[in-house]
Structures are given as C-alpha cells and as structure tokens.
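Q: Got a minute? One more chain.
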Amino acid sequence: MCRDCSCGQPAPEPLPQPTRQLPLHTALLQRNDAQAAGLRQRFEAAGVTVVNLLSSPGSGKTALLEALAQRLDPTGLAVIVGDLATDNDARRLQAAGLTAVQITTGQACHLEAPMVAEGLHLLHHQGISLEQLELLVIENVGNLVCPGAYDLGESLRVVLLSTTEGEDKPLKYAPIFHGADLVLITKIDLAEAVGFDRAAAHAAIARVAPHARVLETSARSGAGLDALINALAR
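A: Always. Here it is, folded:
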C-alpha cells in the first residue's frame, strides 16, 4: 500500500542509494602516489630516466621499442611491459635483444606503482639493477583512460597517437594527452594512405597539451627515431 494514501496501489520501490566510490578511489590514488614517490626517489638515486609509454591498443608501442633497440645500446635499456594477459610483447622485445619483463594485470586496465615495483623485482632476478640502466621504459596497458590517473614514478610521460586512429583522438581523450610531456604521432608512413590530416592532429594536440613536444615517427621507415632518442636523452 502507498504510504501517503489508501489507493490500494503497491508502495513504490525505494530508489537505490548512490554508492560511495569517490572516497575509496581517492584513497587508492593517494596510496599509489605515495608508492610512486618512493619509486621516483629510487630512480633518481640510480640516475636512470624512466618513461611511462601510453597509448590505445595497436598504436605501435612495442614496434617502436623494437625499432629503438636497433639504435640504442641494449645493455642500458630495459622494459617493463603491462598487459591484461599473455607475455607476447615481452617476448617480442626479448627477441629484439632487449631486457624485458611482463606484468600481467588480469582485469586491471592500467599499471600501478606496486606493479612497477614488482617489475623491478623481476629485473633484479635477471641480474639487472637500476644503476646499470640509462633508460627504463614502462610500456603501459593499452588504454587511453585509466593509466593517465596513475603516477608510476616516471620522469617522462609519452603518449602515442597513431595515424590509423584519426586526428581527433586527443580531443576525445583529452586528460591523458594533457598529462603528456611528449606526444608521438606514430605510423607516419601511413598518413597519406589512411587520409590522416596532420595539421588537424597537431592542432588538436596543441589545444589539449600546449606544453607537450610533438614528434612524428615511424617504426617501419625510421622517421623521427633519432629525434626521439635525443628527446629521451635530454
């Protein structure tokens, strides 16, 4: 029966109460940030540059690292790879001559600072210390949403935009591009074939990340890789 009348109608179901997710999410981020600060101190003490490499799936993160392996001293470079499942990318990088370890996240759509610490532990078991490295790349899970919220202690945040994704991707996923220090437009050798509007892409990046440096690269042709190496060295 209705509470306020005797109309004979069944009482309406109570409205669901909003869940209290925001405080929990804030607490998780605070815990992650504290652990990331500890990682950053370790990285700085070891004198290693740490790159957080972010993109949507298929933008060419692994192919880019394979190409860099041909131009850099592999003994000074290691990679921590994050994926929901399989160790395919880590094995590809190992075949290219790089030291690479895999972090399998299960259902998590991003890497977190404790996972990076786990990756360092795996590198240690392979006899690799931070002090031996000049560059440590964290190849994050392919996703343009969640990973941007998690500090991993990196010194440089690099976001990839593939020509095959469309030039408006930075506008659709503005927060992760806004946090980038460097934006790489990858697969630039395919730009003409896929009708990629380079001017529009640069304008979109400038709109959401005016502070970020932008480079056009191709793992296949080698375009822009020397400029990328110089940017990482700085």
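A: Confidence is low (pLDDT under 50) at residues 1-5.
Q: Perfect, thanks.
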